[in-house]
Amino acid sequence: MEEKKKILEDFREVLSLTKKYLRQERERGLREISYKPQATSHRLQKETLEKLRKEVEGCRKCPLWRSRNNVVFGEGSPNAKLILVGEAPGRNEDLQGKPFVGAAGQLLTKILASIGLKREDVFIGNILKCRPPMNRNPKPEEIKACWGYLDRQLKIIKPKIILAMGTFAAQTLLKTDERIGRLRGEFHPFAKGVRLLATYHPAALLRNPGYKRAVWEDMKLLKKEYEKL
Ligand code: URA
Ligand code: SF4
Q: What is the arithmetic mean of pLDDT over 112-126?
């Protein structure tokens, strides 16, 4: 009986100290309690993504491994709210192992800057992680072989918005063969709490300045929705 009383007293004390602590935290601006503090979940995301990178660096799931110099896994924030998806590495990307570092990449960096974003704020990746020879179009079987990696990147990073750049990204992610000109310009539902915006690929924009206006419209729409996140 004596022991029971003691336990009850201890419990009351813990409860009262917890209440006091929470009251203080609320006064300091605390609004919600999470069992997994943000710093911990961000560290986990970073570690999981790095493990996946190591795995992809050894990938031989499609014949593109034979001609690559480097796997281009993608780069940026492991907890980005916005992920950009292109087609496949080109020559410069294959040589450096980084996405969008050639001419199209420089344009992409400028496009991001025009809506107030830095490359590090987002995650930049591709449908294929290895360069197709002579920059030919990705083959359906290559896209199929590589898809699991982008799928896992999306599940780790958990972006709220996906920007699909170009036909291959838009059609693969939306599982459609609708033309990019019809897919762009509006958000599409992608998964629970995730929306996808499609636009022309920056390389297409370099070849065809007529796409500029449409891309600018898409970027304004992206900025508006991104700022609400
Ligand atoms: N084009 C792409 O689609 N991806 C890159 O990484 C570079 C150019
Ligand atoms: Fe593997 Fe993708 Fe590279 Fe093919 S393109 S070898 S599936 S990482």
A: 98
